[in-house]
């Protein structure tokens, strides 16, 4: 991996190719001292090289160099100050590597199910410092054995077990044999050959070792490697998000064509990247069969067709008209085409050609069935005479018009979309208080889908995440999940919840791993051309998938970003107001350290969600609830002003944010810690020097940890549970009800739930949606309409 230093690229770290465009390396190779990702323009990666130098002419035609489109650092990485926890990053290349015999990705799939044996030998390759204390000119490979934790601890310096985290690391090396990794090898992959399938799997990344970052490396000791299997879920998600392959451009549609931006000369049969966007259009007199003209190449195996338009209608003023396409979706009446329908109600004094006030006409092959939709004066209507039935053989020929007949009926046909059954009136939202439910889309990998939720308990739903491209456009985060899973994609599955709650508004959250590199937002905010590209792509996605707006998650703007941030918000809001779209933002709870102008933000956006959770986590030195309503007396002054909802709300209000724009966050998950002393189990109890056990959703807590001792902390208004070794701070029904009461009593805008999939949506512990119900109850919302399901 090459980094630009003094105007030229130098080989500073190693990395491992795990797909055609994803390189995995150590976070400390691509961040500053505080764990912030450096700009992608600082790096390039190369594969198929033998010699150290960038562009070395001795490397043959196999060497391939790639620029970087994105630097994705694990969100838990904080550098040396946090003992190199989560020392892991992924580099996403702008172009795919071309695979050949000397360029192949290491195996990653299923690595979390492949277990290493003590002293099993693996391999590390790199150009680190040699015995001469200079970088190696040629690629070198060493073979070293894996060491189990106890073995490794005995062989490393005594202070290391206390000083560094072994939980997310694996250990390997040879003692007293002059074979070890050294400076320049950081990020290189430790691979092991799996005997079952004869393939090489990446198990670790060079992270830390005695004297690793000095010019005099210790060649007689072990090293610690970031465990790939420990972070399997994170890596797998990011690889899925950034999965791209080659794609064959499809034929042009009959009576239409497709085009590609900057795709001059591209024609059907040419090869492009699978995420290339095709824009379909039709000739005059035709219209696309889809609501959106935009398809990516990977999805163009089922492209839209061009349908012939039906004739324009001429109905008298006052007519009520509903037009639908072949998929039973509401459309503009001038867009009615083959397979569509027009249902119209004539004004007073008029009837349809059937003599009824209301009639439906269907469009087939460019024409309406029987006659075009029309209304005639009731006084001029003449019913069509009923023809006499002719007997088939003999019998009377007397007209049967005087015989009472029953109007002909037909069996109802199954509608193309599910019928929405109207429920009794819902009071949620009628008071103006917002219940904003956030859906963490990656939970679909654990089979948690939008259909599992009760959308009538929410006023708004925020879908996480969609990212940013370098040119300012929105970037679909996980194409498989967002667009294709279950033949529909999570975007449509989420916005389809509006069929179960007609008042629900669904927003896309711009941020997450697709925008964690702050330079993406920063560059967007100060470049009007990029903002224009952002607005154009946002409009396409909002309209294509029936979203109602965006929530911007620029979480850490610098103080000198303040003016540009306001400019960005003003420009977006001005454009969104033309279409009635919503613009909200999610912000850091600590306002004084970031580039926020609370008064101006309050003037522009629809609301501001403050991320009032994750106050305690892997960086903490003692136990604490990460989503407390009020402070604990055991906290210091600084913590009391920042680590609870009440203090954060007051700080933002004092800074100028209006009450009717302020939304606080409530977590439907807890954070767990490893207790250092089983006799100290309360709030602010000492913990082991290891990261937290991470996010634990409520439905897991209520079942898996039901036998723990549960305690209610009346100071923070939250519970915690513990046993001899483990401590969890979380929200239960009582805690969320009190947060709901707080929102109502303080007359704030509402509350944001992160995330809705953490609730007991399937009733594994009893009542379904128990947290969301109690939150609404605390806000004063009636739930009598909701049956106990």
Automatic annotation (TrEMBL):
GO terms for cellular component: extracellular region. Residues 385-418 are annotated as: Disordered. Residues 433-782 form the GH18 domain. GO terms for molecular function: chitin binding; chitinase activity; serine-type endopeptidase activity. GO terms for biological process: carbohydrate metabolic process; chitin catabolic process; proteolysis. Residues 391-403 have a biased composition (Polar residues). Residues 404-418 have a biased composition (Low complexity). It is found in: Secreted. Keywords: Disulfide bond, Glycoprotein, Secreted, Signal. Residues 1-240 form the Peptidase S1 domain. PANTHER family: CHITINASE, CHITINASE 4-RELATED. This is Chitinase. It comes from Diabrotica balteata (Banded cucumber beetle).
């Amino acid at each position: 991996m090459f980094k630009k230093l003094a105007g030229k690229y130098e080989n500073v770290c190693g990395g491992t190719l795990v797909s055609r465009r994803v390189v995995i390396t150590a976070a400390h190779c691509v961040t500053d001292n505080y764990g912030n990702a450096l700009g992608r323009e600082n790096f390039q990666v190369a594969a198929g090289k033998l010699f150290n130098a960038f562009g070395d002419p001795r490397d043959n035609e196999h060497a391939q160099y790639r620029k970087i489109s994105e630097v994705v650092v694990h969100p838990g990485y904080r550098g040396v100050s946090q003992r190199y926890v989560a020392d892991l990053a992924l580099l996403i290349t702008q172009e795919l590597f071309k695979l050949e015999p000397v360029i192949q990705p290491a195996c990653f799939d299923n690595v979390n199910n492949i277990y290493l044996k003590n002293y099993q030998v693996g391999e590390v390759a790199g150009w680190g410092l040699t015995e001469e204390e200079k970088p190696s000119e040629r690629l070198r490979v060493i073979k070293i054995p894996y060491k189990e934790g106890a073995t490794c601890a005995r062989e490393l310096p005594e202070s290391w077990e206390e000083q560094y985290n072994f939980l997310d690391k694996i250990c390997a090396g040879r003692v007293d044999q002059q074979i070890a990794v050294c400076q320049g090898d950081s990020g290189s992959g430790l691979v092991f050959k799996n005997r079952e399938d004869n393939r090489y799997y990446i198990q670790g990344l060079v992270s830390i070792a005695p004297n690793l970052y000095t010019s005099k490396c210790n060649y007689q000791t072990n090293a610690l490697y970031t465990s790939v299997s420990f972070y399997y879920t994170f890596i797998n998600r990011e690889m899925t998000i950034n999965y791209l392959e080659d794609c064959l451009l499809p034929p042009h549609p009959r009576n239409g064509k497709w085009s590609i931006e900057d795709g001059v000369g591209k024609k059907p049969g040419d090869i492009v990247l699978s995420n290339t966007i095709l824009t379909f259009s039709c000739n005059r007199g035709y219209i696309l069969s889809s609501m959106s003209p935009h398809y990516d190449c990977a999805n163009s195996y089922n492209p839209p067709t061009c349908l012939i338009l039906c004739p324009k209608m001429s109905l008298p003023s006052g007519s009520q008209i509903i037009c639908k396409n072949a998929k039973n979706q509401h459309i503009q009446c001038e867009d009615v085409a083959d397979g569509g329908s027009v249902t119209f109600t004539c004004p007073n004094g008029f009837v349809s050609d059937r003599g009824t006030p209301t009639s439906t006409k269907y469009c087939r092959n460019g024409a309406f069935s029987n006659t075009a939709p029309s209304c005639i004066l009731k006084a001029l209507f003449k019913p069509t005479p009923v023809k006499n039935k002719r007997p088939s053989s003999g019998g009377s020929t007397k007209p049967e018009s005087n015989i009472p007949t029953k109007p002909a009926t037909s069996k109802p046909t199954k509608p193309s979309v599910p019928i929405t059954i109207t429920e009794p009136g819902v009071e949620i939202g009628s008071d103006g208080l917002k219940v904003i439910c956030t859906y963490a889309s990656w939970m679909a990998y654990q089979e948690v889908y939008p259909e599992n939720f009760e959308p009538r308990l929410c006023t708004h739903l925020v879908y996480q995440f969609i990212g940013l491209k370098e040119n300012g456009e929105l970037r679909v985060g996980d194409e498989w999940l967002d667009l294709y899973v279950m033949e529909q994609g999570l975007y449509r599955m989420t916005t389809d919840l509006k069929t179960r709650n007609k008042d629900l508004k669904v927003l896309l959250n711009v941020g997450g791993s697709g925008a964690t590199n702050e330079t993406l937002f920063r560059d967007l905010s100060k470049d009007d051309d990029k903002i224009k590209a952002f607005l154009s792509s946002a409009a396409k996605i909002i309209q294509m998938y029936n979203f109602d707006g965006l929530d911007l998650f620029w979480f850490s703007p610098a103080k000198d970003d303040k003016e540009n941030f306001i400019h960005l918000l003003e420009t977006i809001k001005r454009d969104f107001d033309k279409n009635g779209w919503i613009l909200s933002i999610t912000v850091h709870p600590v306002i004084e350290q970031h580039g926020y102008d609370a008064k101006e933000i309050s003037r522009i956006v629809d609301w501001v969600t403050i991320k009032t959770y994750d106050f305690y986590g892997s960086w903490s030195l003692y136990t604490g609830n990460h989503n407390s309503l009020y402070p604990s007396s055991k906290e210091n002054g600084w913590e009391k002003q920042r680590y609870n909802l009440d203090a954060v709300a007051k700080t933002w209000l004092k800074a100028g944010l209006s009450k009717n724009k302020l939304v606080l966050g409530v977590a439907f998950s807890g954070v767990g810690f490893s207790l250092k002393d089983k006799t100290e189990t309360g709030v602010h109890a000492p913990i082991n020097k290891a990261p937290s056990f991470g996010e634990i959703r409520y439905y897991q807590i209520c079942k898996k940890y039901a036998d723990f001792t549960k305690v209610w902390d009346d100071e923070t208004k939250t519970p915690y549970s513990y046993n001899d070794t483990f401590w969890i701070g979380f929200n239960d029904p009582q805690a969320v009800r009190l947060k709901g009461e707080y929102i109502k009593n303080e007359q704030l805008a509402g509350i944001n739930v992160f995330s809705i999939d953490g609730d007991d949506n399937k009733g594994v512990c009893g009542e379904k949606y128990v947290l969301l119900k109690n939150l609404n109850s605390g806000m004063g919302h009636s739930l009598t309409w909701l049956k106990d399901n």
